Amino acid sequence: MFYYVNGTVAHMAPYLAVIDCGGVGYACRTTNNTLAQLKKGETARLYTYLNVREDAMELYGFFTENERNCFQLLIGVSGVGPKAALSILSSSTPETLAMSIITGDEKALTVAPGIGKKIAQRVILELKDKLAKGQIAPGGESYGGTGVTVIPENKSSEAAAALAVLGYSQAEIGMALKGIDLEALRLEDIIKQALKKMVKG
């Protein structure tokens, strides 16, 4: 329904940013990482996700599309609600989260407040293979936006698909994969190296 909201930062509180768009204040639940990018009184754009429940409608906003994409992936995991997803994304960036999932690093996930070992294991279990194979994309769309799930045929395509899931553009993915020995390395290691480049980026 809302792709993003663009306006003046009217108010900030823990896990909350209010964006004034033409006199209407949109309360966006958000992460510490997004709040760190905002300044009260300045203009900002937050990429949004509208969560509709029987008893409430809540708007979530993120400074980058990558962060929103990761939020949508996380709430797709059974037992992980929006609050837990915000906690995880407040303790890691999309890149470090992807690295934690691909490498099976439970400890990196349990650093987030309220995230125990069981939830961390579930996140890794449900997202690792899908992420590594590029079989999922946030919002229920498939890689390439074709409406059909794409299972790439080689390691280069698989790595590109996994990075596309996180919201990176083809140009960014091309730069990240440049110089990596795609033939010699395992898929997991290719993705790891590409993510490291993006983190430094």
Q: Can you walk me through this structure?
A:
With about 200 residues, the chain is α+β, with helices and mostly antiparallel strands. About 45% of the residues lie in helices and about 20% in strands. The chain is built from 9 helices and 5 strands. The chain has helices at about 30-35, 65-75, 80-90, 95-105, 105-110, 115-135, 155-165, 170-175, 185-200; strands at about 5-15, 15-20, 25-30, 45-50, 55-60. Strands 1-2-3-5-4 form a 5-stranded mixed β-barrel. Strand 2 (about 15-20) and strand 3 form a beta hairpin. The radius of gyration is 17 Å and the shape is globular.
> In whole angstroms, how far apart are the ends?
32 Å
User: What is the residue-mean pLDDT, rounded to a whole number?
Assistant: 84
Enumerate the spans where pLDDT stays under 50 for 5 or more consecutive residues: 135-153
Q: Sketch the major β-sheet.
A: 5 strands, mixed, barrel
Residues in helices, as a percent range: 40-55%
Give the percentage of residues in beta strands.
15-25%
Shape: globular
Q: How many β-strands, per DSSP?
A: 5
Strand/helix succession: EEEHEEHHHHHHHH
> Radius of gyration in whole Å, from Cα?
17 Å
Structural class: alpha+beta
For this entry, what is the oligomeric state of its chains? Answer: single chain
Treating each run of at least 4 consecutive H or I residues as one helix, how many helices?
9
Describe the strand arrangement of the main beta sheet, using strand numbers: 1-2-3-5-4
